[in-house]
Amino acid sequence: MKAPAFAYSRATSVNGALELLSAHGENARLLSGGQSLLPAMNLRLICPEIVIDIGDLAELRGIAVRDGIVSIGAMTRHVELLESAQIATSVPLLAEAIRHVAHPAIRNRGTLGGSLAHADPAAELPACMIALDATIVVRSQSAERRIAAVDFFQGIFATALSAKELIVSVELPIAQGASAYFFHEFARRHGDYALAGVAAHATMDGQVLSELRMAFFAIADRPVLAKAAAKLVNVTVTPALISEAAEAFGEELDPPEDQQASADLRRHLARVLFRRCAEELVDFGSVRVIQ
Ligand SMILES: Cc1cc2nc3c(=O)[nH]c(=O)nc-3n(C[C@H](O)[C@H](O)[C@H](O)COP(=O)(O)OP(=O)(O)OC[C@H]3O[C@@H](n4cnc5c(N)ncnc54)[C@H](O)[C@@H]3O)c2cc1C
């Protein structure tokens, strides 16, 4: 199938793109990497009257660090994040997760902003944003808003973005002191969307976890933070405590059932991931110290 006819405009500035978004609202779609938008248009799941190409906007691209924050432009491509020494050093969880996003051809075109705006509940990067406590910076013609990642994802392909806003950048705090991360997903083949996955980040105070954010994906209509992770914070973690927390985590969930996996299988996989993640993080094997 092919998309129905649509108008096309190549934006030459962020303001120009916002002007078009403001004029066309729900009838317009931004085009960044096109890896999700174009298949959806070809399948006629989305039929915009106008496509606004933001691919030339250099001001939306790049990685910068200042005042303990990594700022990533929305048009930064997956491959650029994967190859960035800055990302590998400052937010290695993100570098690890991107290896699991699709395949090289898609990573060469797909962008961080596109992935977050698309908000697939099985996608890796939205979960990383929640684990890393990111702030998503969005702009309309009249205002700029800063939205905590945990509030940004609102359902299947649904976000806090209005039709007149675009994502400008993402800000990730760099952990100070000892910190560790964990990423794992169960997928039928490497590069496929996951059946269940977790992106986690922890900070340590001596031998205890002082903060633990475990963000699960593909187990709900949006990425979710495990509330049961709080049981492992500021205490001496034992195998029995991990089992208790993993059990409690399963009770938090109401996973979807689809042709890929039953709800019970997803709940089981999520508990396995919770347990593995906790065991690895309290092992302190992956602890690193950022100066
Ligand atoms: C075969 C295949 C396998 C894939 N596997 C995975 C996978 O395993 N994991 C995964 O996470 N993803 C996967 N993807 C999706 C891929 O990561 C996409 O790159 C990503 O979802 C969308 O990014 P994009 O830049 O291509 O966005 P586009 O397709 O250009 O846009 C997607 C949506 O976001 C909107 N948008 C784009 N940029 C902005 C912005 N700056 N502000 C506001 N709205 C914006 C668009 O209007 C559109 O609605 C796969 C895609 C394909 C085709």
Describe this structure as you would to a colleague.
The chain has 291 residues and is of the alpha+beta class. The protein has 3 domains: 7-52, Uridine Diphospho-n-acetylenolpyruvylglucosamine Reductase, domain 2; 62-173, 2-Layer Sandwich (Uridine Diphospho-n-acetylenolpyruvylglucosamine Reductase, domain 3), CATH 3.30.465.10; 180-282, Enolase-like, domain 1 (2-Layer Sandwich). Helix content is 33%, strand content 27%. The chain is built from 11 helices and 15 strands. The protein has helices spanning 14-24, 37-42, 78-83, 85-90, 92-98, 104-109, 112-118, 124-131, 149-152, 239-252, 263-282; strands spanning 7-10, 28-31, 50-53, 63-66, 69-73, 135-139, 144-148, 153-155, 158-159, 166-173, 177-186, 196-205, 208-217, 224-225, 288-290. It has a 5-stranded antiparallel sheet. Strands 14-13-12-11-15 form a 5-stranded antiparallel sheet. A 3-stranded parallel sheet has the order 1-3-2, covered by helices on one side. Strand 12 (196-205) and strand 13 (208-217) form a beta hairpin. The chain is globular and about 60 Å long. The model has no long low-confidence stretch (mean pLDDT 94). The site of flavin-adenine dinucleotide has 30 residues, from strand 2, helix 2, helix 6, helix 7 and helix 8.
What topology does this entry show?
Elements: E1 7-10, H1 14-24, E2 28-31, H2 37-42, E3 50-53, E4 63-66, E5 69-73, H3 78-83, H4 85-90, H5 92-98, H6 104-109, H7 112-118, H8 124-131, E6 135-139, E7 144-148, H9 149-152, E8 153-155, E9 158-159, E10 166-173, E11 177-186, E12 196-205, E13 208-217, E14 224-225, H10 239-252, H11 263-282, E15 288-290
Parallel strand pairs: 1-3, 2-3
Antiparallel strand pairs: 4-5, 5-10, 6-7, 6-10, 8-9, 11-12, 11-15, 12-13, 13-14
Helix pairs in contact: 10-11
The chain binds flavin-adenine dinucleotide.
Flavin-adenine dinucleotide binds at residues 29-37, 39, 74, 101-102, 106, 109-111, 113-115, 117-118, 123-125, 161, 166-167, 191, 193.
